[in-house]
Amino acid sequence: MPIPLTRIDYTAPEFNTSLPLRKGSDGFDTRQDYLIKGYLPSSSVASAYGASGSYKSFLAVSWGCHIATGKPWAGKPVTQGAVIYVVGEGGIGVPRRIRAWEQTINGGSPIDALYRVDCPIFPASPESVQQVIQAATGMPIRLIILDTLARCFGASDENAAKDMGAFIQGCDYIKAATQTTVLIIHHSGKDQDKGARGSSAFRAALDVEFNVRREGDGGALILSCTKMKDAEEPSRRAYDLNSVDLYVDDDGDLITSLVLNDEGHEVREDDVANDPDLAGISRLTENHVALWQAIRSRTASGDSCTRALVRDNMKAMGFDVSKKFARWLDKLEKDGLIAFDGEHITLLPHRNKVGEEVVHP
Questions:
Q1: pLDDT tens-digit profile of 308-325?
Q2: Can you tell me the distance from the alpha carbon of 205 to that of 164, in angstroms, rounded to the nearest whole number?
Q3: Which SUPFAM superfamilies does the record associate with it (predicted)?
Q4: Out of 50, 264, 271, 325, which residue is the most buried by the measure of CB atoms under 10 Å away?
Q5: Range of lowest pLDDT (132-141, 142-151, 351-360)
Q6: Of 3-12, 44-53, 221-230, which range is least confident?
Q7: Which residues are within 8 A (CB) of 284 and not within 5 positions of it... i.e. 6 or more apart?
Q8: The whole model's pTM is what?
């Protein structure tokens, strides 16, 4: 005989706490504010990483200049405000890149709302953090660029979670105190397909992450969003860089720089066509190679690797995963590159053309 259910009258308890408690979905329709719509959220910690020579600093200059002047970037609206650019490596490269942007896009006029700090600052140092906050006081600062993480990390160890945690904590404090977005320019590791260099605690703490790489041997920059915490990732696009004449020096030599063209175009040639780990595997398209590298990157960094997560990674990089994603996975499985445990994907060692076993990291 079934036991009759007893109805319980539930009354919400009276909480005695200073915690900012909210009920259920309260705030679901809170507006997401952006510095660059769809790319850089306001009051966030973001990173753009890539190998040396990948043009990542040119991207940072472009974003900084557009935000400082309020000019749309890639057709997207921009929230205008002052920018502090920390040129951790010093030198004359960044001011020349800014001048190239001014000549090309700002009618030759200097940008009044972009400020440079031509030395590193150290977010892990409370004294350094206070200096940044003091510099931002009294100005409508929207963006602080740290170029690069390595220069602003001091003598600490990028691979140590504790040291990386102190760096991130400092960035978070700057963000909270100034209500700005902190953009960190960072280097990729020896294998750039395995993500940014250093402790995985860095990526875990980010709100937004972009990968920057060169388009083959050409002069374009390929921008791929690899993490967008609270919104949909923008599609992968390529951006050309154009040479700009700046001045003639005392020796009669023409000094030039590059400026990023933010119009963007479809990626014509990526540099993923020849991965040594795929030697001997036939009939691989760009789609197969990109999928393989997404799986390898997740596995190498210790992140969860499931069909759904890898599918999202591919979509974020601009691949159409609506029709043939399952076929791409099937081919990698048939080629002995991956195996499935339910929804989870694991890597398998394979043999190259001469029979040498390749063990994946």
A1: 999 988 877 667 788 889
A2: 10
A3: P-loop containing nucleoside triphosphate hydrolases (SSF52540)
A4: 50
A5: 351-360
A6: 3-12
A7: 278
A8: 0.72
d(CA 29, CA 26): 8
How many angstroms from the chain centroid is the CA of residue 280?
Answer: 32
- For residues 265-296, b (16+ Cβ closer than 10 Å) or e, as one string? eebeebebeebebbeebeebeebbbbbbbbbb
Over the range 15-49, which residues count as b (16 or more CB within 10 Å of their CB) and which as e?
A: eeeeeeeeeeeeeeeeeeebbbbbbbbbebbbbbb
Q: How far apart are CA 325 and CA 305, in angstroms?
A: 15
What is the length of the chain? 361
CB burial string 230-262: b at 16+ within 10 A, e below: eeebbbbbbbbbeebeeeeeeeeeeeebbbbbb
Query: For the range 29-32, what are the long-range contacts, defined as Cβ-Cβ under 8 Å and sequence gap of 24 or more?
Result: 32/230, 32/231
Separation of CA 179 from chain center: 20
Cα–Cα distance between 178 and 220 in angstroms, integer? 34
Pairing assessment for the beta strands 220-228 and 208-214 based on DSSP bridges: antiparallel
- Joined tokens for residue 333: 């499985």
Distance CA(223)–CA(48), nearest Å, equals: 9
